[in-house]
Automatic annotation (TrEMBL):
Stated role: Part of the Tol-Pal system, which plays a role in outer membrane invagination during cell division and is important for maintaining outer membrane integrity.
UniProt family annotation: Belongs to the ExbB/TolQ family.
Regions crossing the membrane: 12-37, 131-154, 174-196
Keywords associated with the record: Cell cycle, Cell division, Cell inner membrane, Cell membrane, Membrane, Transmembrane, Transmembrane helix
Descriptive protein name: Tol-Pal system protein TolQ
Positions of the MotA/TolQ/ExbB proton channel domain: 84-211
Gene name for this UniProt entry: tolQ
Native source organism of the sequence: Seongchinamella unica
């Protein structure tokens, strides 16, 4: 009875082109797994920071005090990300525009909203980092693996031309080697697709929460801007 080839033997005895395809798929799989873990940890941290900041924001704390707390955090080297970054961008612009006596309430609010929108886009870019790579791995890996399989099968059948006896045993090892490439393509693609879909839905949830916060915070800023301008008119 002939000894059956192990998976490693199939990889070792594959043609150079198929081995190159396998190496590419292994590299793509390892890199995608690194990005999957990195994105998972980042999104979990972003969610915890968002809930923590929301609780602090709606606790009734003075907005100036909340802004100063962020300054202290930044001075200690802690990054300001997520919803707090959006808040700081809006409040900083609001404070700057409110000092200009010629600015009316609508202009102050519009400037603050514009600053928050820019900060929100920046945060969304951070959340979506590496997702394009996962999408590419998920969509292209099966085809790369299929290319390796087709090439390996072609190589096996070309070898039949020089064989004295064309049997299934002659061509089976080459076909088995080639099929490993398809399996590796699926192995790389499936986790990448699942992770991309999962992370994309999470990013959408974050984006909706950020957008809602911008609207709610804008209402607060508008009331403050209106009260400030009314106070200045009475003083004038």
């Amino acid at each position: 009875m002939e000894e059956q080839l192990s998976l490693i033997d199939l990889v070792i005895h594959a043609s150079f082109t198929v081995q190159l395809v396998m190496a590419l798929l292994v590299a793509a799989s390892m890199l995608s797994w690194y990005m999957i873990v990195q994105r998972f940890l980042y999104l979990r941290s972003a969610r915890e920071e968002m809930y923590s900041f929301e609780e602090r924001f709606w606790s009734g704390i003075d907005l100036s005090q909340l802004y100063r707390e962020g300054n202290e955090k930044a001075s200690h080297g802690s990054p300001i990300l997520g919803m707090e970054s959006i808040f700081r961008a809006g409040f900083k612009e609001f404070s700057r525009l409110a000092q200009q006596s010629e600015m009316d309430s609508e202009a102050i609010l519009e400037g603050s909203r514009r600053a928050m929108r820019v900060a929100m886009m920046r945060e969304e870019e951070r959340l979506e980092r590496h997702l394009a790579f996962l999408a590419s791995v998920g969509s292209t890996s099966p085809y790369i693996g299929l290319f390796g399989t087709v090439w390996g099968i072609m190589h096996s059948f070309r070898g039949l031309a020089n064989a004295t006896q064309a049997t299934l045993a002659t061509v089976a090892p080459g076909i088995s080697e080639a099929l490993v490439a398809t399996a590796m393509g699926l192995f790389a693609a499936i986790p990448a697709v699942l992770a991309y879909n999962r992370f994309s839905s999470k990013v959408e949830v974050f984006s909706n929460r950020y957008d809602t916060f911008v609207d709610e915070f804008s209402s607060i800023l508008y009331r403050q801007a209106y009260a400030l301008r009314a106070k200045n008119k009475r003083a004038g």
